Amino acid sequence: MIGCGNVTEKKSGAPAINKVPHSKLVAVMARKGEKAADYARRHGVARWYDDVDALIGDPEVNAVYIATPPDVHPEYAIKAMKAGKPVYVEKPMARNFTECEAMNRVSRETGVPLFVAYYRRTLPYFIKLKELIDQKVIGDIRMVMITLHWPPYQEEVGADPQPRWRVFPGISGGGHFHDLASHQFDFLEHALGPVKYAGGIACNQAGLYPADDVVAADFEFESGVVGTGSWCYTVHPSSRLDQSWLIGSNGRIGFSFFESSIIKVETPEGIAEYNVPYPPHVQQPLLETIVKELRGEGMCPSTGETGARANLIMDWICTR
Q1: Do 110 and 64 fall within a single domain?
Q2: How many CB atoms lie within 10 A of CB 244?
Q3: Domain stops at, among 91, 117, 143
Q4: What is the CATH number of the domain that holds 39?
C-alpha cells in the first residue's frame, strides 16, 4: 500500500484488506517514514518503506494499492504495472481524463490489471438501487436529479483556515466536486449506461480555496435518460442536503449517495422504503472482487476503463 491517509484507517487499508480471503497487507509506504512506521505498527503490517521503488520492488508484494492524492496516481500506477504488479488506485483515478488514459494505455500494453476504488458498485445499498432500476419498479427511467449541498469543512473557515489537498486542483484535479461527483457519475454509468454528453458551469464563489465550490450541470445518457445536478460546498449547515431522484414513467426513487441508508420508492401503488446500511469497511466488497479476479475466480466491476469515464464526464462539465 502506497499512502497511509485517513481512507486507509477504516474504509480500506489493513482493516479491509486483511479481512478478504486470500489477501494480506504485507508492506506500506509513505513519504515520511515515521508515518509508514506508525501505520505498520498499529495495524500489524510486517514492513514499511519511505521509497516507492522499494515497495514496488518488494518480492512479497504481488499487487499494489495506491492510496495517495490523485497527482501521483499516474506515476505510481505506471511504475507498478511496468513491474508486472496489478494496481488498485483510489478515486478519482487521476486529475483528468488524459492522465487516466495514460494509465490505461500501460495496462493494455503490459496486460497488467488496473482497478479503481469506485466501491459503490459493490455496496449492498447500491446493488439494491440498481436492482430496483433493472426490475423497472418505477417503469422506464426518464431523468436523474442530483443535489449535493454541503457547508464548508471546519478547516476551510475561521481565523486560520488550513484547507486540505482536495481543494487544490494541482493535487486533486479540482475540488470537492471532483472528489465526490466522481462516485456519483461512476455509479450512474454502472446503473444506466454510458453518458454521451455533459456540460455545465463550475466556479468559485466564496473564495475559501482555489478550486471551484459550486457546480451546475446537465447530462444525457446514450439510452436517452437525461440528468441534472447541483453541487455547492459553501451552504449554511441548515441547508445541508444529499438527495437524488430517479424519475420514471411510473414513479420515482429517492436515494442518497453519501449520508443515508434509506431508499424510497414512490409509485401509484404507494410508498416503499428499504434500509440498507453500509458495511463497516466500505471497500471490502470491491476488494473481494479484485482478489477473485486476480485468482481467476471472478471479475471486478471497477476497472481503469470504467474509472476513467468519471474523469471524462467531469472534464466535460468543468471545461468551457
Answers
A1: yes
A2: 20
A3: 117
A4: 3.40.50.720
One domain, residues 159 and 212: yes
d(CA 292, CA 21): 9
My answer on whether 219 and 241 are in the same domain is yes
Whether 250 contacts 268, CB under 8 Å? yes
* pLDDT in 10s for each residue of the chain, 320 residues: 999 999 999 999 999 999 999 999 999 999 999 999 999 999 999 999 999 999 999 999 999 999 999 999 999 999 999 999 999 999 999 999 999 999 999 999 999 999 999 999 999 999 999 999 999 999 999 999 999 999 999 999 989 999 999 999 999 999 999 999 999 999 999 999 999 999 999 999 999 999 999 999 999 999 999 999 999 999 999 999 999 999 999 999 999 999 999 999 999 999 999 999 999 999 999 999 999 999 999 999 999 999 999 999 999 999 86
For 101: left if phi > 0, alpha if psi spans -120 to 50, otherwise beta; the answer is alpha
Task: Report the half-sphere exposure of 257 (CA within 13 A, side-chain side).
Answer: 27
Assigned domain for 197 exists:
yes
pTM (2 decimals)? 0.96
Cell digits of residue 50: 519511505
Enclosing domain of residue 19:
6-117
Same domain as 263, residue 129: yes
Q: Are 91 and 12 in contact (CB under 8 A)?
A: no
- Domain final residue pick, 98, 117, 136: 117
Amino acid type, 134: D
The Cα–Cα gap between 42 and 197 comes to 46
